[in-house]
Amino acid sequence: MxxxxxxxxxxxxxxxxxxxxxxxxAASSEIMKNITDDELLEQIxxxxxxxxxxxxxxxxxxxxxxxxxxxxxxxxxxxxxxxxRSLLEKAYGAEQAQKILDRLVTILNSNPFQFFNDADPSQxxxxxxxxxxxxxxxxxxxxxxxxxxxxxxFFTPLIQYKVALKIAQMKSTNxxxxxxxxxxxxxxxxxxxxxxxxxxxxxESLASILNRVDRATEKNVIEQLEEEVPELAESVxxxxxxxxxxxxxxxxxIQRILREVDTRDLAMSLKGTRDxxxxxxxxxxxxRAQAILLEDMEYMGPVRAREVQEIQSKIVATIRFLESSxxxxxxxxxxxxxxxx
Length: 341
Known about the structure:
Helix content is 67%, strand content 0%. By secondary structure, the chain is mostly helical. The chain has 3 domains: 102 residues, no CATH class; 125 residues, Annexin V, domain 1 (Orthogonal Bundle); 94 residues, Flagellar motor switch protein FliG, alpha-alpha superhelical domain (Annexin V, domain 1, Orthogonal Bundle), CATH 1.10.220. The C terminus is likely disordered.
């Protein structure tokens, strides 16, 4: 049966997966060998595995889209952006030419500041410490979260807070402004190629970074956010530990949490969640408690996704409270979380 899917609703990863399917095993395997990003490779592989048969017109549109981008890339390399725009407008019209160039720019500029991922965190912090917090935030938002966390640890508490706030508040930027920032940064930091800044930052980016900093940095940033922008602090807190992260907790922490959670709430929170989360919970319960929980889940029947999310948020709040009171520990990627004999 043909899957009812339109190209407009497909993600970039799905389009790549579809193209690889069209190209066939031999060509696709050669392409995939050259994808060095393990996470991206996994996403593409999963998309290929989960993709049903697509309509012929959708496949043709995907091939045409990739062809036009390859064509545009060749034109840009040969004569620059204006040259490419001129030729594409003749071939596709002004509106379609702009769409092609926009997609091309997004692809080419998807990994800015990667040079800094190889820099020593303390040296990078020293290099950036006198820069505007907005610029520091821009750079850290694009680095790997674990690397950004290490850099953030070396800043003073005031800079930590200012940079964290800028990351959380970061939104899309006008391409013309981006171009000006590129020129400034390129002139200031030699050998650094800066690309598209329009999609960096936000509360998720900040939460990902704070999940990896040491506790002193996390405490400083969160406390100042709570004082200055409490609603933002709460949004970041909610993202720093999600319900599915329960699988990363120690068994004794799970057992302590279960003493605070109503059985019916627990049953609802596990509806539709991953099997490994359910298994983590069940293995920390007595056989009798397991039987009661499974019976509650069975007789509960269908529930609204919004209600499940509300109960999960309630349990996460309980987990955060138990951590703040020192009753459980949420381990983070930090030397400070190593056990001391």
